[in-house]
Fold this protein.
Amino acid sequence: MTSTVTVSNIGGPRLTLGFDRFDRLDLDRHLAVHGRLRAPALDDLVRMAEQVDLRGRGGAGFPFARKLMAVAARVEHPAADRTALLPGERGDERGSSEDVVVVVNGAEGEPGSAKDKVLLGRAPHLVLDGAQIAANALGTQRIVLAVESDEAARSVRAAISERRMPARVVRLTERFISGESGAVIRAINGETPIPPGVKVRASDSGVDGFPTLLSNTETFAQLAVLVSLGPDLYASAGTEDEPGTTLLTIGGTQVVEAPLGTSLRAVLDQCEVPPSPGVLVGGYHGMWLDPVAVSRAVLSRAGMRRVGGTVGAGIILPLAQGTCPLGEVTRIASYLAAQSAGQCGPCRLGLPDVVRSLMALTEGAGTVEDVRRAAGVGRGRGACSHPDGTARFVLSAMEAFAADIDAHRWGGGCGQSTYGVLPLPVPDGTEGRVAIDWSRCDGHGLCAYLVPELIQLDRYGFPVVLGTDIPSWMEKDVQKAVAMCPALALRVVGGVPGAPSRR
């Protein structure tokens, strides 16, 4: 994938230094460009990270110094000294710094993001420098890199071999929720790679139950640049409150390194993005900005807050002219509903209701209030942040595309087709959808009882099917519903393994 992504910078490169000369920086090239690794002591590293307020670049923006201190505190105060242990904790075993694990979260399950894949593919030694700096400060050699693509895995393994360092590479499943910290830890531990139902901090109990420092790929690369430049020179780019640069993925195909504080318009101009009816900032858990907000937006946490946006994981998706905005929003919401882990009510039932309300609004039969009500039901109550992020994406669209929504509400449509310009994964042929043979359906209603997430009954007792891909966690339920349909009217269109298609 990285070979199809163009990389540029505004104001000079740091993370992307050397990209103009080399497709990939092997160890010799890395040393020539970035110099030899320095390894500050823990206190010095914490001080540097605090001085520039280094934040995670994975979306949450958590202060990196606090993560370091949380893990260090767990080493200094073993779990055996506490009256109660968290699930998975191992007592005395966790008191040794040698058991601490440093995890580079290279999961980039969101279709519109490419920046971390670019770093892993083209500057793997910069990422490994950051991981090794953190590991040395914490007194451990245990480093795990969790990646999603074969290309990233090959690049990282080659870099590890060049350095002869004891690091492990774990391949993750490519899906939207795979980057959630709990899902990454579970995947590394050989468990089902979904977020845990009960939140446990990685610094308390992570890989193998030991204290774990987990942060995303760019964060470790930023840490390496910080140690290499020193806090003062690092802070020469960016703003006084938010120093440094950040990586952004524009439209899924361009990666730009820009100083924090750069205007959004400057980044879009750099990428030759024409005027747009709306720009999504922060990715599919982010927020939509209308053209007025886009013209005022600044790429920093404070700057984005002022216009109702977020930097998030640095994903910027302009919506092209000529496609139906509400149709695009509904399409992505359908994808997000199918990507859930399916382990809690807000995802299993709440997200399908959001999709149904959007479909009704698109057809002119629903209202914005219906959408807001559906999106608000599961907020703050899910096993992870997926319901909240999806609600944020949908609700911001209600504001940014108010004129288009009015056209659908009162005119039956906006006159534009939905061309699917927002990026989604390329189907692999296994996706399937539920369909009804109406020449057979007698309205028994059993299907709605067996798979209420995908089928509901209208006031006459006939099924109304949600037109989304069947989530992987529902495949067995769908197979059961197809097999038990008394009229043999229920079928699967597409590729769910083991399901009778009745086509």
